[in-house]
Design a protein that fits this description.
The chain has a single domain, classed as 3-Layer(aba) Sandwich (Aminopeptidase), CATH 3.40.630. It has 5 helices and 10 strands, in the order ββααβαββββαβαββ. Strands 1, 2, 3, 4, 5, 6, 7, 8, 9 and 10 form a 10-stranded mixed β-sheet that branches. The longest helix is centred in the last third of the chain and has 14 residues. The model has no long low-confidence stretch (mean pLDDT 96).
């Protein structure tokens, strides 16, 4: 289900969209009839391959993985966002997001995060949303704070090194 906000249309990625994203921007532009912002992803195609693998194993993961935020006015893909999978047995999901440099500091990442939060909490199974940031004050930490997240701890992640864990409980 597409998530609509004031400025964005968040498109949930199915297998076909993920394959095009992995194949390249030209294929993605043609398929979605959009333009793609410069440097729209800093993480490369690995997260899209992860999502494709998860969906291939379990179709119930669709809607709980990657979303592509389309800036409505520009009809342009400006980042990626989503969850790291469907709610676990404790009712927890993790969100993440990134935004192209040209679209930063304009409120779009906050708008994306708020949309993901609202979407997740609309599911009766979701009781907690978690997120991780680098262990430093940065734009992502500010976004999570604005959205009501509480920093709950420090983690030494094997892939990312020292990070902060954030939580938002369903009210």
């Amino acid at each position: 289900m597409i998530i609509e906000t004031k400025n964005l249309r968040l498109i949930p990625c199915d297998k076909e969209i993920l394959v095009k994203a992995i194949e390249g921007n030209d294929k993605l532009e043609k398929m979605l009839n959009i333009k793609v912002a410069d440097n729209w992803t800093e993480f490369g195609v690995d997260p899209f391959q992860f999502s494709l693998d998860r969906i291939s194993e379990d179709m119930e993961e669709i809607g709980w993985l990657t979303y592509f935020p389309i800036h409505k006015q520009d009809n342009k893909l400006i980042g990626s966002a989503g969850y790291k999978g469907k709610p676990n047995e404790n009712g927890s999901v993790e969100i993440g997001y990134e935004i192209a440099p040209h679209y930063r500091n304009k409120g779009f990442a906050t708008e994306m995060a708020e949309a993901l939060i609202s979407n997740a909490f609309s599911d009766i199974k979701v009781k907690l949303i978690i997120a991780h940031t680098l262990r430093e004050e940065n734009a992502s930490a500010k976004i999570l704070t604005k959205c009501g997240f509480i920093k709950v701890g420090d983690i030494d992640d094997p892939d990312d090194g020292p990070i902060w864990k954030w939580e938002l409980k369903k009210s």
